[in-house]
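Lab notebook, page 48
Experiment: co-folding of the full assembly
Goal: obtain a model of how the components sit together before planning crosslinking
Operator: M.T.
Materials (sequences as entered):
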Amino acid sequence: MTDQKTQFYFEIKDLSVGFRTFEGIKPVLNIEGLGINRGETYGLVGESGAGKTVLALTILGLLPKPAGMILNGSILFDGVDLLKQSEKQMAEIYRGKRLAMIFQDPMSTLNPVFTVWQQIERVITRQEGLKGKACLKRSLELLDMVKLPDTMNLIDKYPHELSGGQRQRIIIAIALSCGAEFLIADEPTRNLDVTIQAGILKLIDELQRDFKMSVLFIGNNVSLVNIFCRNAGILYRGKLVEEGLSNCVVQNPLHPYTQTLISAIPRSKSEKLKFSKTIIKPEAENGCPYFSRCTIGKENCSTHVPMLREFRTESSAESLNDIQNPVQKAACFYAGGTI
Amino acid sequence: MNQPLIKVEALKKYFPVRSNHLFKTQKQWVKAVDGIDLEIQSGETIGLVGESGCGKTTLVNVLLRLEDSTEGSIIFDGLDITRVSQKMMRDKVRKNIQIVFQDPFWSLNPRMLVRNVIGEPLSVHQKLSGLALSEKVESLLDMVGLPKDSLYKYPHEFSGGQRQRIAIARALALEPKLVVLDEPTSSIDILSQAQILDLLQQLKEKLGLTYILISHDLSVVHYLSDRIIVMYLGKIVEQGPSEVIFNQPVHPYTQALFNAIPSLSMQNLSELQTIEGNVPSAINPPTGCRFHTRCPRVMPICSEIEPKAIYVDKDHQAACHLLKS
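Observation: model returned without errors.
Model output:
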C-alpha cells in the first residue's frame, strides 16, 4: 500500500493550516492525506466555511500572510514539496505555469477596465515571453481552444460586454494558457445558469483529457461532483470525513454527515427532506468535529477523534477491478449505520 | 372552478433603451415581459423557471407593482392593481402580497434591530408599538424557529439561513395571502436550504399561503411547487402540474433545461445536455418562435409563425409547433 501511495502525482500529507486570531491560533484545515493521480479528477465537497477555498489557496501559496499559517505537513506535487518553495520559485515555476486555478465568480475575476486581449496578453507575455504578432496568434488559439466563436471580434471587447459563460471561458483560457498540469477549479459554475453550467463542465472535461491534467474540483453540489469527478472527498470543518470513488460515496454514504448532506438534496414533493436540526449537543473540543450535530454519536465520539478508516462495502466491491482505489474511507466510529 | 386569487391578462413590461446614433435618436424597447396570461389559485405554489434574463424577476416586480406595467391587467382579489392609486395600493393590496428576496445579506437593513426589521410592517399597517409590537414579533420569531432573544440583535449576528428566516418572518408579519419567494435559498448552504424549504412548506400548510417561487435550482422548484411555469424571453413556453412538467415535458426548451440539471442518478458527464448559444437579446427577439435560434428540433415554420399556447392535457399548456401534428 505504501508503494502505491508514493505514486500519487499530487499528494497532501498531514496538512494543518491555522489562522491567527486574538484568541490564539485557530485551526481551519486538518487533512491527513489526499492524493490525486495524473489525469484524474478529485471533487471536494463541503459547506461554506469548511475550508475548501483555504486548501486551494494553500496549494498555490496564496494564503493571506501573516494571518494564515501553515502549521504542519507537506503538499507534494510531482515529487516536490510546494510548501518548502520560496515565493519566487512559486511565482516563476509553479503558479500560473504548472498549477492553474479557476476562481469562483466569473463576474469579478476579470478586470473590468481592460479588454480581453489586454488581459490575455499580459499573462502570455509574462509567462511565455511572446510579443506582438506571435502573442496575438497564441491568444486567438487559446480562445479557439475554449470554443469561443468569432475570436477576432471578441478579443477587443470588455468583460461587461460578454455573458457569464463567455467570461468563464476566457478565464479558463487564461488559466490554461501555459499548459498547466494541475488545475484547481473552485466552484467554476457557481453563478451560472444550468444550461451554461453543462457547457463549461464539458469544456473543462475535454481540456483535462487533452492536457492530461489533474483536476481538484471544489463544489458544494454533491450531484455535480458525482457526475464530474472520479473520486470525491467530503470536507467538514477542515477535516476529510469521507473519501472514495464518487459514485460509491453518493450511493452508499458511510459517514453520518455525508448521509445528511445527500438526503438534504430536494428531490420531489413526495420524498420528505431529511436534515439535521441545528446544534443539539455541545461542541466536543477533543472529539469528532461532527459530534455536535451527529445523531448517532456516542460518548467516545466526544473524547476521541476518529481517523479515516477503510471500508469495503458492496458498492465498492463492484468497482474492485480498479485496483488503485478499491476502498471507501470514512472518519467515523460508527460509519455505515443509517440515521 | 373557483375564482383565482390572482389573474394576469396580456401583461407586458417594456423598458425603454435609447440608442444614440450620430444623426438619429432611436427609441427601442427591451421586452422583458411580453404578453403573459396567468391564473393562480388560492393555496397553490407556482414555480417560475427559466434562464437568467427571461423576465422572471420583472414579472414578479410588476405583480407587486414595484414596477408599473406597460400593458395588460392584474386582477388580485377582484381589483385591477395596475390601475389603482398608490394610496389604495398601500392600504388594500400591499399587505396581502409580500416578498422574500434572494439575498438575505442585502435585504435586511444592517442598522436595524431584528425587532424593527420584522416590526416595521406592523407599525405601519397595524399601528402597533411598544410591548404589543414586541410580543407580536416574538410570536413571529417563534413561528420561523428563531429564539426569542433574537429580538434585540442585529442582522449581522445571524447566519445566512437564520437571516432568511428573519426575512420570511417579515414577509409573513401582515398575514399576506400571496408570498413571492425570489430565489429564497440560492445564497445559502444545502443543509440550511433543506431547513428553509421545510419551514416554507410547513408555514404554507399552517397559514394557507399561496407562493410564487422563482428559482433556477430546479430541485427546489420540484420540491415546493404544485404547478410550474417555464419562461423564455418574456413569454411562457410551457406550464402545467409539477410532476407532469418534470416527467413528461413537451416543449423542447423545457426538455433541454431539465436535461442540463445534474442529478444524483446521473453517472456520466455525457448525460448532461447543453443548449447551444446564448439567450438572444430581448430588444430584437427572434421572429416566430423565440426559441427557434437554439432549438434542436427547429422546423422552417418556427422562424415565421409564432406558436400559440395549446392544451396538451387538462392544465398542461405548451407553445410549440411540434405539438400540432
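Interpretation: Chain B touches chain A through 38 residues (CB under 8 Å).
Next step: discuss with group before ordering constructs.
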